[in-house]
Amino acid sequence: MTVKTRHRSQKSPSRSVKGLHPRNLHNQGYDFPALVTSCPALAPHVKPNPYGDLSIDFSNPLAVKALNAALLNRYYNIADWDIPDGALCPPIPGRADYIHYIADLVGPENSDIRLLDIGTGANGIYPLLACRIYGWQCVGSDISPLSLANVGTIIDSNADLKERFTLRTQTDKNHIFEGIIQPDEYFDVSVCNPPFHASQDEALKSSQRKVSNLARNRGEEKAKTKASNLNFGGQGAELWCKGGELLFLKKMIRESQVCSSQCRWFTSLVSKAGNVRPLKKLMLKVGAVEVREIEMKQGNKVARVLAWTFFE
Q1: Residue 306 host element (H or E)
Q2: What pLDDT, on the 0 to 100 scale, is given for residue 201?
Q3: Is-contact 27 16, C-beta < 8 A?
Q4: What is the C-alpha to C-alpha distance for residues 217 and 36, in angstroms, rounded to an integer?
Q5: What is the pTM of this model?
Q6: Residue 27: how many CB atoms within 10 A of its CB?
Q7: CA atoms within 13 A on the CB side of 198
Q8: Considering just the CA atoms, what is the radius of gyration of the chain in Å?
Q9: Long-range contact set of residues 223-228: C-beta below 8 Å, sequence gap at least 24
């Protein structure tokens, strides 16, 4: 068997100023007047920032949730998107970028793609975007019935999604693909935004740092947000698991070997740069014939997606 490994980053031939994927609809930033029209609930949160530009307080969970609802309504025709208090509130431009780069991986012109989202959460964001942008068939899995129930409500509010987006409960927390991918079932690609942290305390400290950083960016000496109200979203399995991101992804890679013939490309976000090298090493060890690191630039931030396949 010839092992092909690509350890270089995939780079787009053309980049916008913000660095988002060329097909990303959010390359030019947020048009707040238009977004308020799409979602009037956003209006109270929109105010001039210190530079005189319209913006919102990104440390305010209600403001961020209203912004997401407006973006999904205006650009993706998704009505009544909502999440429970405390649930992970994803940044739409960055999540759309992941889907666009995955489309490059499997062929953006192919509308017959089947996508599996591992840990879809209460927001269901990856399948929602994949259905709307590319017309793919999607399955969202999660260990939380409450999270899946919320996504089910979103699907019910968008009747045309019912034939494209289905949900499955992972009943065994020790497994990722087993019990979700059915016998004789095939997916073109799986996506995942794994839990970042190794403990609830670590997740809380990270949220506190984010609030403090936002406060400094606004010129405040300290954050006004109380720790008990921190909400960049995420509760339980959305933000942390034993062993953190590295252990979760090692488990995912090992389990992908078992269902290697049922999914062409396995992919996941990797938030910690130091985890990339050991994960690539494990992918090759379990028999992956090709490994790709996809770099996504969002302003000054760099996000990474690892993709691996067992197909020649």
Answers
A1: strand 301-309
A2: 54
A3: yes
A4: 24
A5: 0.84
A6: 15
A7: 4
A8: 19
A9: 223/59, 225/59
Whole-Å CA distances, 80 to 30, 66, 72, 285, 301:
20, 11, 9, 45, 30
Decide if 136 contacts 111 (C-beta within 8 A): yes
Residue 14 has a pLDDT of 36
Please tell me the distance from the alpha carbon of residue 135 to that of residue 60, in angstroms, as a whole number.
Answer: 33
For 80-132, the DSSP string reads S----TTS----HHHHHHHHHHHHHHH-TT----EEEEET-TTT-HHHHHHHH
Question: Which amino acid belongs to residue 147?
Answer: S
Q: At what angle do helices 61-76 and 92-106 cross, to 10 degrees?
A: 40
Torsion, Cα 8 13 16 17, to 10 degrees, reads: 60
Residues 6 or more apart whose CB falls under 8 angstroms from that of 211 comprise 59, 223, 225, 230
Q: The tokens of 214 are what?
A: 């936002």
Question: pLDDT tens digits for 159-196?
Answer: 999 999 999 999 999 999 999 999 999 999 999 999 86
Low-confidence ranges of the chain (pLDDT < 70): 1-18, 196-241, 243
